[in-house]
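Fresh eyes needed here. Have a critical look at this protein's tokenised backbone.
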Amino acid sequence: MNNERKISIINKPLTKQYINVAIYCRVSTSHSKQLESLSNQIDYYRKMVNKHLDWVLVDIYADIQSGKNFSSRPEFQRMLNDCLNNKIDLIITKSISRFGRNTADTLTVIHKLRLLNIDLFFEVENIRISETSKTFLMSILGAIAQAESEARSQNIKWGIKRGLEAGTSKIYDRKCYGYRHDSKRNIIINEQEAKTVQMIFNLYLSGYSILAIIRELKKQGIKSPTGKENWPKRTI
């Protein structure tokens, strides 16, 4: 009788022991301060990856684009292509606004990443897309909406500043009492109106009320900027 024990070897599927990590960074312009910021971001996240023994840095993707649309960012597109080729398990980036500024497009990309079982970590907001709560989605929408608002504000300010520098701003066409345009459309002081402005200030400093100043201007026959006999309180 054979009393030898039979030993069966069960081959268990190998589990992945490491996580392939991608770093995504973006700045809006190639100005020196922006490029310095980009370099600092890359250095910071490289160190973050190195602190995790089970993380392997796959690649660093860095765009220099204002980038409201993903299609205008070549590095972003390259990263997505690597995701489709199963090269990436986790993407780390600074913030939602650095990742995307268009709400619909951003949520579409996030949905695709989740279908591919690829996690995405926003460091500033401390959010991973592997979290599926309603709070997560609201945070995404809120952060992107804020980024869109800030971007619009910056664009408007930039446009106003450049218009003033070039002398093409509509502000130059607004009627401003005490000033006028010369032959070159430069704003210069209107000497006659300037005397009225100085008088209004002096009357106020002498203790005149707004209504008293209006009466004095009418008494002297000085018409308002719009040609009316009575000056509006708001104008004074």
Observations:
- DSSP finds seven helices and seven strands in the chain.
- The mean pLDDT is 82.
- The CA atoms of residues 110 and 129 lie 7 Å apart.
